[in-house]
Amino acid sequence: MDIIDLARQIGKEIQQDEAYIKMRLAEQESESDKELQELIENYNIKRMAINSEASKVDRDDEKMQQLNKEMRHLYSQIMQNQKMLDYNSAKQEFETKLQRVFAIIQNSADGDDPETTDYTGSMGCSGSCSTCGGCH
Fold it and tell me: Which CATH number applies to 3-114?
């Protein structure tokens, strides 16, 4: 078995992992939540309206403030939805595991012992985007 075949095998194992399955199920649950999907749709409409207003030469700053306020409110509602909370939690769990896999491969390619090398970054979200390598 060559390295490409091994990578494909890892891909198959990832898709059978409990964290991956949990994330995919939570994603399906959130996508089937009509209320949540309406909130997301309204959020995207507000975001487009903000972009449209911002691109105007004679934009209305009061209108921009109102649209921003409405968009933040929608975002808050989205992020408080239980299915979104479940999805974000499951996604973070899976991404942490995936970071470990990537780190082991990368560190091994850099000469570290594959049996002992592991992910050395923060295993959780500190809440500060400035210390994060990517959003969950």
Answer: 1.20.1500.10
